[in-house]
Amino acid sequence: MTYEYNPQSTRFEIANPHRVENGFLLLAALVATGCGVAALLAARQVLELQFSVKAAPFVAVAAVLLSTGVLFGVRALRQLRFFFGRNQPMGLAQELGKDQDGKSPGAESLRETLRQNAIAYQVPSGALDNLLYALSRDLIFSPPRTQFVARNEFRNVLSLGFLLLCFAVALLSVPQGEIRNWISAFYLGLTVILVLLPMGGESAQAQPLGIRFVIGLFIVSVIGPVLLPKLAGSLPLRWEPDVHLVLATSVALGSALSASGTLLLAALGQQIKPQHIAMAQSLQTFSMNAPPGQILLEFDREMQRGWTEKIPNRAYLRVTPETSGDSGAFEGQVIEETQPVPQDIEPLGLIRCLELPAYRWLVVLDLVALAAASGGSVLLLNFAHAAAQYWTLVMGLALLLVARFAFAGGNRLWRRFEFISRIYWLECHGNFQRAKSSIGALLHD
Predict the structure, then answer these.
(1) Phi first, then psi: what are they for 423, rounded to 5°?
(2) How far apart are CA 55 and CA 35, in angstroms?
(3) How far is CA 426 from the centre of its chain?
């Protein structure tokens, strides 16, 4: 990234958009680290009394909590400073070097957009995408990244809602006993494998549950609780009486559904409503006594006079006229874009984020992540003190996964800016003819 500080202009001096997010990340890191240190001190106290395996749960919990605290803390420290460089945001197509001829599919698509005086939007495909775009009609006008996050979280919400429905249906036919714990363990494993782990990555893409899997899981949720008691004699269905996996699974599904739903609302809050798009086209016909390449040279000089903050324009397409031979036709094209200029550079504080629809749900999402991280850290610390209650271990780890997912999902939407740039397209066609003239007196013998 090339960054140039200009004390005479603050047009590109953008405040850090991660200030509010960093606050939540540091709070979550402090809570997790504090609980991890408390677990370490408890392990040290146990070892001072006697060398016993009772210190093992404290050490394991301390390792998990300290790792989580370091993860959140490092992410916040990496976002303490924010620089906007000359090569940001990304260009509309593949850029060309200085005085380089060439074109790309993206540049040709941009030229066709200018030629048609209309913007083409990707048509949603699939049942889930059509349902989402039917519920939110303005989403199709949003940037591709916003649409990707919205589609991704819509699939996650439907997947989690379906798992929660099947879990409730399976529990209705089993009033009590060990079968409920096996059902809870089954759905908790599905939640972690199918949803929580894939959702944790910054660029993860959710895969919708297939139709066969949905039908099969619903059949299992209805018939499975009836078949499990009959198979109890051949399966090791023995649980400790104080294992509360039903509560742990319910909390994991509920918190994951809340985080995914909040992230979906945050993505929908960043929609761009359609506005009137104006473009002026100019067609000129003229004759000139100069090489056709002079047209592009004069165009380059004129563009250089209008550089934004002395930043060179972005060249996407350039075709220099070919004039080989004594006569023929020529064609030349140039497409350039000025440096995008951000429109809103005011600092983002907590009060301002709550007032703006684009950031209000992001604050709520970070609150959910902080609550999940704090609850998971406390539950893991309680497990270390009472190692027999394994349900606190399961619930604590699930809440930490939910916190990781919520922070990673919100991070993709915090760095949001609106830019304005101007695109110039020069296209020239014509015919050329070479001529020779002699100056001076002719001598004849």
Answers:
(1) -110, 130
(2) 15
(3) 35
